[in-house]
Sequence to fold (257 residues):
Amino acid sequence: MPLMSTDLTGKVAVVTGAGRGIGRFIATTLAAAGMDLAVCSQTIVELDSLADEIRALDRDVLARPVDVADWEQVSVLVGDVVERFGQIDRLVNNAGGSFEPGPLADSDPTGWRQTVEINLFGTYNMIRPALPHIPASGQIINISSGQGLEANPNDAAYNAVKAAQTMLTRCLALEIWDRQILVNDVNPGLTATPGVHWSEHADVDAIVTEFETREAPWGASERVKHPREVADLVLQVARFATGEPTGQFFSLAQHPL
Fold:
């Protein structure tokens, strides 16, 4: 039986880490689908231009500079969203990153803690205050990583925390299935963003072009995706109707990592 497609017009989405890269494309894609947006990141200049893009799509937008690792900042954001829009229909936890790559034996505890705080506690911090305001038929979509599914040397902090995030998704899906709220992971796979440290380019299209034929850093063939492809997958998941897949890991990756 084919999955049903929900009309998102007039519904409200919250997207974290929305200032650039994957998060920005997710935000504008959801706005183009008819959703009003609350967006946050740590960089206000990027948020201002993003808000202009969303308004140009004739959608309402609330933009706030927020560190998702900070419980108080997140709580204020959720309060502002509820005051402005009344509820949260789609929560997309996109904020994340690897802040301590390299061998564990040479690692800095500060970078390890930052990786855990942003990726895991950042996801928890958003979900916990938002849950009372997510109605039946609502969704939580966590932007995860295949690095949480398979051991990978020299990035243990990120691997470990993404494994934890995926387990959080699965546990929460079981806890709130009776509220008819879906909780799923989306794995972008290798994606062109300004944070791709093994590219000399800052422009997304240039990164995609550069790696169309080049092998990925680990030596396995992997097509570099454009962030809009990730946003399109998020949109597909966001359109799931009540009773459709929950606790699942939807992936664009061609390589397990």
Residues 197-201 have pLDDT under 50 and may be disordered. The radius of gyration is 17 Å. Residues 104 and 156 are 7 Å apart (CA to CA). DSSP finds seven helices and seven strands in the chain.
